[in-house]
Write a structure and sequence with these properties.
462 residues, alpha/beta, FAD/NAD(P)-binding domain, Enolase-like, domain 1, 3 domains, 5-stranded parallel beta sheet, 13 helices, 32% helix, 23% strand
Length: 462
């Protein structure tokens, strides 16, 4: 019977990172994953392939509509969808091989199969052929991730009605794609297929898009996406989506049914905690399926920890990675902590949208007095030179202490700029602290400096 000091169930961003960190700390580590490729949903059918397609489709759109302003004349632009998909698959394959190499480097044993808790200190691994291996370990980390939520009445068949997994691998551009859900996934993949020529209709039940993003930023994004050609309909309650012959039908309350080629159900994700044997160690999930844990990721069962999408907190790959490192450190008796208030969020549309910390709405609801500084990219020299002047940076700071409480960006390279914001906030920076740091010129981060200056009404270039 195989034994390990620590066994991790799940090879996604949280699981494989936890395994590597534990191995670095001297543990004999095993990792259980049923998929041939490690990296989880994020690498195989999520973050990485979607960003690869977003980048390819963005380059196509630039060639068709934007390069002329730079004096670059391009005619007869076309694209090869098969080649685009191959590049996406190559990116995924290369990164997956990299994870395999990291496991080998750190002498982590890979167990291929579906992992299931089987009582204290025991995990059953069922292989594809049905064979079961029992592994013993006094310490188990559950890192099983999440799966797509499908609304009642949405009949996913994998061909005409699917989730993000199918939308990442269409073999042809649909004439009309209906996206159910106006969140990160729906808007990113809707953008990809809109750029490639599809008519895209986004149906969002709420009265806004991008739940959780600062309201002012989300409102600006809505106007921009509509200008780009996305047909976004708010207050749309989908009651049914199904295949109908060689097409699909989407029904909304109070509206005419929509006939389309494909349907993408993008209405969020839920923990993949069913069927993993939690009951064998006495662990009960909360009503949403999350595994409750303490500040050090310990569950109610001795010797069992949990991390990533299957526990409360932002369901993001980078949060799962932070969980993995902190959990391994805690198991080894080291100090560990993850501040979920400072987990950045990024939407990789164009322009990008990024945020860290509190929104205006959250501060208002909490009764926190704050000051706001805003700086538009149209006044930034670098943004002008690269012809990316849409959007702005917004800094929210405590009215009394000037400590930064939230930073929100819509504009060029927002996903990269948010890193400085998160680092500053992690060290308790004030708006003045950011404003007094010398930023190189001409660069996009100068917009963050100016927004910080604007908190006190001292912006130089606005």
């Amino acid at each position: 019977m195989p034994t390990h000091d620590l066994l991790v169930i799940g090879g996604g961003p949280g699981g494989y990172v936890a395994a590597i960190r534990a191995a670095q700390l001297g543990m004999n580590v095993g990792l259980v994953e049923k998929e041939p490729r490690l990296g989880g949903t994020c690498l195989r059918v999520g973050c990485i392939p979607s960003k690869a397609l977003l980048e390819s489709s963005h380059k196509l759109e630039m060639a068709r509509h934007d390069l002329g302003r730079h004096g670059v004349n391009v005619t007869g632009v076309s694209f090869d969808l098969a080649a685009m998909m191959k590049r996406k698959d190559d990116v995924v394959s290369t990164l997956a091989k990299g994870i395999d190499a990291l496991l080998a480097k750190n002498r982590i044993t890979r167990h291929v199969g579906s992992g299931r808790l089987a009582g204290s200190g025991r995990v059953e691994v069922q292989a594809a052929d049905g064979g079961v291996t029992v592994i013993e370990s006094p310490r188990v980390i559950v890192a099983v991730g999440s799966r797509s939520i499908v609304l009642p009445g949405v009949d996913v068949d994998g061909r005409f009605v699917g989730t993000s997994t199918e939308a990442l691998s269409f073999d042809a551009v649909p004439s009309h794609l209906v996206v159910i859900g106006g969140g990160y996934i729906g808007l990113e993949l809707g953008t990809v297929w809109r750029r490639l020529g599809a008519k895209v209709t986004v149906l969002e039940y709420a009265d806004r898009i991008l739940a959780g993003i600062d309201g002012e930023i989300a409102t600006e994004a809505l106007a921009l996406f509509r200008k780009q050609g996305l047909d976004i309909r708010l207050g749309a309650k989908v009651t049914r989506a199904r295949a109908d012959g060689n097409a699909a039908i989407v029904e909304c309350a109070g509206q005419e049914p929509i006939r389309c080629d494909r349907v993408l159900a993008a209405t969020g994700r839920r923990p993949a905690t069913d069927g993993i044997g939690l009951e064998t160690v006495g662990i009960a999930t909360d009503p949403r399926g999350f595994i409750p844990v303490d500040a050090h990721f310990r569950t109610s069962a001795a010797g069992v920890w949990a991390i990533g999408d299957c526990i409360p907190g932002p369901m993001l790959a980078h949060k799962a990675e932070e969980d993995g490192v902190a959990c391994a450190d805690a198991i080894a008796g080291k100090w560990s902590h993850v501040d979920y208030d400072l987990v950045p969020a990024v939407v990789f549309t164009h322009p990008e949208i990024a945020a860290v910390g509190k929104t205006e709405e959250q501060l208002g609801s909490a009764g926190t007095a704050f000051r706001k500084g805003v700086f538009p990219f149209r006044a930034n020299g670098r943004a002008r030179t690269i012809d990316e002047t849409t959007g702005k940076v917004k800094v929210l700071a405590d009215a009394s202490t000037d400590r930064v409480l939230g930073i929100h960006i819509i504009g060029p390279a927002a996903g990269d700029l948010i890193g400085e914001a998160a680092a500053a906030m992690a060290f308790g920076a004030t708006a003045e602290d950011i404003a007094r740091v010398c930023h190189a010129h001409p660069t996009l981060p100068e917009a963050l400096k100016e927004a910080a200056l604007a908190v006190s009404g001292s912006a130089i270039h606005a």
